[in-house]
Amino acid sequence: MLNIQSFEFNPFNENTYLLWDVGTKETAIIDPGCYDDFEKSELKNFIEEQNLIPKLLINTHCHIDHILGVSFIKENFNVKYMIPEKDLPLHKNAMSQGQMFGFDLMELPAPDEFISEDKIIKLGGEELQPLFTPGHTAGEYCFYSERNKICITGDVLFHQSIGRTDLWGGDYDTLINSIKTKLLALPDETKIYPGHGIDSTIGTERKQNPFLINI
């Protein structure tokens, strides 16, 4: 069984997720947006209080609000760092992204591995299937657990909204195709955990999301 804990960080109200296997406590830290000392302490204290064992650091994509805490996590925990390969230009320009929005950000640590649909992500006895879902960025991935009926959707699909496509690597038609072929293909009861805002389900978004009604 997987447990999930969300944190809302930074001025963009970005959702950072901890996902862990209940039996082994092996944990994935997904999209660490923690920026100031209070946010970093909140995340670190929760991990320590719950006796979690961080194994993976994963970016669904590499926009500034999702990468602010990457260096902090790598410095404090022995984790494998995974990003989408097609988002490498965003990753390499993290400092420039930061400057655009007033964040003091150092160069990010190099990724240890690129995400691929061919590589199942394992946490103890649990598995996450990466789903390649470009459109918000050129390389974004979502992460689906069939057994636990959950999907981390990053900035691809939100409650009654979808990701922006007016930023670097964004393309509206590509995003809609990703949602249609990868996310709406999941069972209706699948709970989605987006990069911003509240959780929802695939069934709810299929019926009520104004961007998806006519696709």
Automatic annotation (TrEMBL):
List cofactor names only: Zn(2+)
Annotated Metallo-beta-lactamase domain ranges read 13-196
Protein's name in the database = Zn-dependent hydrolase
Keyword Zinc in record: yes
| Name of a matching Pfam family | Lactamase_B
Please tell me the species this chain comes from.
Ignavibacterium album (strain DSM 19864 / JCM 16511 / NBRC 101810 / Mat9-16)
**Which molecular function term from Gene Ontology is one that the record holds?**
hydrolase activity
Keywords, A to Z? Hydrolase, Metal-binding, Zinc
